[in-house]
Amino acid sequence: MKYTIVIGNKNYSSWSMRPWLVLDHFGLEYDEVMVPLDMPETRTTILSFSPSGRVPVLVDGGFAVWDSLSIIEYLAEKHPDLGIWPSDPHDRARARSLAAEMHGGFTGLRVACPMNLKAVKKFKARGGSAAARDVARFEGLISDRVARSGGPFLFGEWSAVDAMYAPMTARLTGYSWPMEPATQRYVEAVQSEASYKKWRAAALEERWVHPRSDRA
């Protein structure tokens, strides 16, 4: 079985990164179709894979699944033996709650600090109190979860919820946000994982420029 994953630019597309990490980390076979974002043909190209007109899209045979979290859930159902979510029912429910919180929240930081894996920017208080609240919430959940699980990931072993939070770690390092020691250790663990490093290496080779994401 080989999937097709349709993604945006690796440097900029945080939503594409999340299910791609799950595919790659768990050794699932896939072909990759990369559609550069914000180009005249972008939407038309994506519409040929999904009626949403957005990336990411997973194609399984002739069946398309779109939205990062939906793709991850689809993969978890198709491959229940892989441990894509934690095995303990309470841990699994909490991991899904945290994944959904990321999926629908943290908008202050997202707007203030767009995904840009090439960025190494001097810290400044971007996004005002909304972004600061998002970072504080992230640090709080990291501290709580790693203390409970023993780390290095949110539920001990790497799982889908760590894929959901991986772009957050990129934002914190790329925009030089100050971090508590527990957060720093978690960020380093996520960014040392092989699939994250593989995605980032490819992102650094891209030549597209997105004006909003590349602003100072």
From TrEMBL:
Q: Which residues form the GST N-terminal domain?
A: 3-83
The taxonomy runs: Bacteria, Pseudomonadati, Pseudomonadota, Alphaproteobacteria, Hyphomicrobiales
Source organism: Acuticoccus sediminis
Q: Which GO terms describe its molecular function?
A: glutathione transferase activity; maleylacetoacetate isomerase activity
Q: Example GO biological process term?
A: L-phenylalanine catabolic process
Report the InterPro entries cross-referenced here.
Glutathione-S-Trfase_C_sf (IPR036282), Glutathione_S-Trfase (IPR040079), Glutathione_S-Trfase_N (IPR004045), Thioredoxin-like_sf (IPR036249)
Keywords in alphabetical order, please.
Answer: Transferase
Protein name per UniProt: Glutathione S-transferase
Q: Does the keyword Transferase apply?
A: yes
Look up the signal peptide feature and give its range.
Answer: none
Pfam families from the UniProt entry: GST_N_2
